[in-house]
Amino acid sequence: MDYTKKALRIAYKNKRQQLSEADIETSSIAIANQLLRLPIWEKKYFHIFLSIVNHKEVDTEFILHLLAGKDKDIIISKSDFATRKMTHFLLTDTTKIKTNEFNIPEPVDGIEVPSSKIEVVLVPLLAFDTLGHRVGYGKGFYDQFLSECKPETIKIGLSFFEAVPKIEGIFETDIQLGYCVTPQKIYTF
């Protein structure tokens, strides 16, 4: 198999499209349950992505309930496609969520939170390898964001699929994950 980012992007977008709604729900619940086993629950500030339904991403609704139940501060982002930067907002009962032109659910506005305050980031991805490198959609939003976080920030990828051996073409600017959680297991890097 070709392990270049481009080939993995195509292969894993296709793999995701094969998943049924029931597969996504079952796997997303399993991922949420796996997260409970990680040593992260003493942390307070958790950044989470809101799932892009038509991309068949991990449904983070179950994780949102988990974080709310544990009284964590939940942070979500808004993406600026001109600058490739993300602005982070505290998710509250009054946060209005709107889907942007790319079908990404985002907060309209709210209380802004600096990247330096975030302690745990749940990272979307298409594929990842046994070394903790990931392949996203290729726009660089998360690499930019993760580079702004403190070095001790815990970075956790969420994936429906298991790791590939080694992604080819990793850049120095690509930020490694600390963990990746799949429905079957937790990878630690």
From TrEMBL:
Q: Which family does it belong to?
A: Belongs to the 5-formyltetrahydrofolate cyclo-ligase family.
Q: What GO molecular function annotation could you give as one example from this UniProt entry?
A: ATP binding
Q: What is its EC number?
A: 6.3.3.2
Source organism = Flavobacterium agrisoli
**Which amino acids does the record list as binding ATP?**
K5, K6, A7, L8, R9, R134, V135, G136, Y137, G138, K139, G140, F141, Y142
Recite the UniProt keywords alphabetically. Answer: ATP-binding, Ligase, Magnesium, Metal-binding, Nucleotide-binding
GO terms under biological process:
folic acid-containing compound biosynthetic process; tetrahydrofolate interconversion
Reaction(s) catalysed by this chain, per the record, are: (6S)-5-formyl-5,6,7,8-tetrahydrofolate + ATP = (6R)-5,10-methenyltetrahydrofolate + ADP + phosphate
Read off the PANTHER family from this record: 5-FORMYLTETRAHYDROFOLATE CYCLO-LIGASE, ATPASE INHIBITOR/5-FORMYLTETRAHYDROFOLATE CYCLO-LIGASE
Q: Which cofactor does this sequence's record say it needs?
A: Mg(2+)
Protein name per the record: 5-formyltetrahydrofolate cyclo-ligase
Q: Which domain of life is it from?
A: Bacteria
TM annotation in the entry: none
Identify the InterPro entries for this entry: FTHF_cligase, FTHF_cligase-like_sf, NagB/RpiA_transferase-like
